[in-house]
Write a structure and sequence with these properties.
- It is built from eleven helices and ten strands.
- Strands 1, 2, 3, 4, 5, 6, 7, 8, 9 and 10 form a ten-stranded mixed β-sheet that branches.
- The radius of gyration is 22 Å and the shape is globular.
- The protein has 310 residues and is of the alpha/beta class.
- It comes from Chitinimonas arctica.
- GO terms for molecular function: ATP binding; DNA helicase activity.
């Protein structure tokens, strides 16, 4: 029997000769080319971008979580705004607020005008000028608000595909996870189905999806000076596999009114390709935004703050 015939019966071939090997090598080449051209997306926070290896990446699903009213929407709006300012096609899908309400949050974030004063229309002449200047600045930005009545992943997917095709969508912010309905399933299964489909959507469209969560299971038991962890999330086992990045928000003043109310931390509790850690930022409650804070910058995720300082 000839060598050729014998070789044809072998269930394997020399490395580099099979279709799978060729596809693998092509994938590596494509990945290297893509990395050289990759446009990272900013979080709007210098130290957080650094800890994340330069920022957020296309294809990533980023989960932002924390107890109610701690600033999740403020961070989501800040991420969307920072990228839209740089010309990145951005969509914000809020299941809680109308486009008018989101617009008010954006203007407050850009202008620094107190959000409550904007809502009540009690503005000084200087605040009116800042408000108008912010509105002019926002007008040409490539940002779109998605209809809040579209509450399923299927509807969100259709909207995202259309924005990708027509506008070159790069960033989608979804606020928030537990309001995305998946009929005929328990809450845990519904959340797992929704988050897995959103991860698939991020990969298929090559966009970054930032997803606000509302999954803290025991906020009353968290201490002002101890960082939250992944196991503080409800349904942790069902959802933690899918996000590439998990950001947990922590403000000591949320739990203790006697401490500095501007002091805030963003815990990078999971990062699939880079290190984790804790970034110190400042929370400006009047205009509902996070901004860069002076050092210390970031620390180990397991480090807690020294109570002796207080």
């Amino acid at each position: 029997m000839s060598d050729t015939t014998e070789a044809s019966k072998q269930p394997y071939q020399q490395a580099g000769t099979t279709d799978a090997d060729k596809q693998f090598n092509q994938g590596i080449e494509k990945h290297m080319t893509r990395n050289s051209e990759l446009h990272t997306l900013t979080t709007g926070l210098t130290d957080l971008d650094e800890l994340l290896g330069g920022g957020l990446q296309p294809g990533q699903l980023v989960l932002v979580d924390g107890p109610p009213c701690i600033g999740k929407t403020g961070l989501g709006v800040g991420i969307a705004l920072a990228n839209a300012k740089e010309g990145v096609a951005t969509a914000y899908h809020s299941l809680e607020m109308s486009a008018a309400q989101l617009g008010t949050r954006l203007v407050a974030s850009v202008s620094g005008v107190d959000l409550s004063r904007i809502k009540s229309a009690r503005l000084s002449d200087d605040e009116v000028s800042r408000f108008q200047a912010a509105a002019v600045q926002l007008s040409p930005m490539p940002m779109w608000f998605v209809d809040p009545t579209r509450r399923t992943v299927a509807q969100l997917t259709r909207d995202a595909c259309k924005l990708k095709r027509e506008r070159g969508l790069s960033l989608l912010v979804v606020d928030h996870l537990h309001l995305i309905a998946e009929e005929g399933a328990s809450l845990a299964l519904s959340l797992e189905m929704a988050i897995s489909r959103l991860k698939r959507l991020a990969v298929e469209l090559d966009i970054c999806i930032v997803l606000m969560g509302h999954l803290h299971k025991r906020p009353a038991q968290l201490h002002a000076f101890f960082h939250p962890h992944l196991n503080d999330l409800r349904y942790q086992s069902a959802i933690e596999h899918y996000p590439d990045v998990v950001l947990l928000l922590h403000r000591p003043g949320y739990y203790d009114p006697t401490v500095d109310q501007t002091w805030a931390n963003i815990v990078v509790a999971k990062h699939r390709t880079e290190k984790t850690g804790v970034v110190s930022v400042a929370w400006q409650s009047a205009c509902a935004r996070f901004v860069d804070a002076p050092p210390p910058r970031f620390t180990s995720p397991h480090q807690c703050y020294a109570e002796a300082a207080y």
